[in-house]
Design a protein that fits this description.
Blueprint: H1 3-40, H2 46-71, H3 84-94, E1 98-106, E2 111-112, H4 125-135, H5 144-158, H6 172-175, H7 201-205, E3 206-207, E4 210-211, E5 217-218, E6 225-226, H8 232-235, H9 244-254, E7 284-285, E8 290-299, E9 302-311, E10 319-325
Amino acid sequence: MGKYPTNRQGIALITTLMIVALVVTMVVDFNRTTVAEIEVSRNFSDEKRITYLAVSTINVLKDLLMLEGTHSKGDTLLEEWANGRGYFSSASAVFQEGKLEGEISDECGKINLNSLVGENGQFDETQKRLWERLLRQPRFGLTGDQIDAITHGVKDWIDKDDEVTGIFGAEDTSYRSRGYRCRNGLFHTLEELLLVNGMTKEIFFGNERGEGIHPYFTAFGRSAININTAPVPILMSFSDEMTEDIAFEMDKFRRDETNRKALENKTWYKDIWPYGNPLPENAMTTSSVTFSVRMKISLRENVKEIKAIIFRPLESEPSLIYWQET
């Protein structure tokens, strides 16, 4: 036990030095490329330079995630990637001509849209209860009918049959007037949820009446949710007996460096959980494979926001599986 913190400090130091070196290399290469391009063509645009910087940044973060995955047993909010804003701030300080902002999130700490339906085409009851406990939290301001419309609409969007689920489901007949059909397959992106009957922009993004639900769902995670990184509202969805106070105590526990070793086992929650009945451990994990990166890059009058998804399997190098620019 005595050697554990020392090893972690060594890994953190190596990671920090590596990131500093990568950031410097990234900016130097970026500036070199920029100068070369300007000399070749006067049509070189700030927008293109922003894209180069974004790609370089993603490559840096892929290396960071690979290093963390190699030296860590599981993924927690204590890992270096969780301090993504600090790395973006460091890169921005070197990038004198503009500004770079961003953060890294664990997609496996969210509820996977595609896990609501099992292989038999029916609701996965464990996942359905997670959805319902999350959506009925007062923060969202949803009614029971709205929650049923969302869950039943998502089920029919995923399942392969054309049978409407209950009175709130929706198949092709509900979508023809909108100019598209029910997918009858898995979600490809989170934003696809906006196409589903029962979902509105106000529910998805939020408004003055309630918080938006989009930060708590993903199309890129796994069915098992990382209890070490899940937001507090998702921790609250694990049990009807879970209170906000208990969820915050769990959050405090997992952010304490002295508990790093305990976080390798998903049953660490029992140190806080005051009840005898366990949480649904089949829906929980302590490791993650997909991470989202959100960046905002400003260069003079040009501003670009980018969302990327990095897939980091244990057996191979990380890869970029999603890229969106706005």
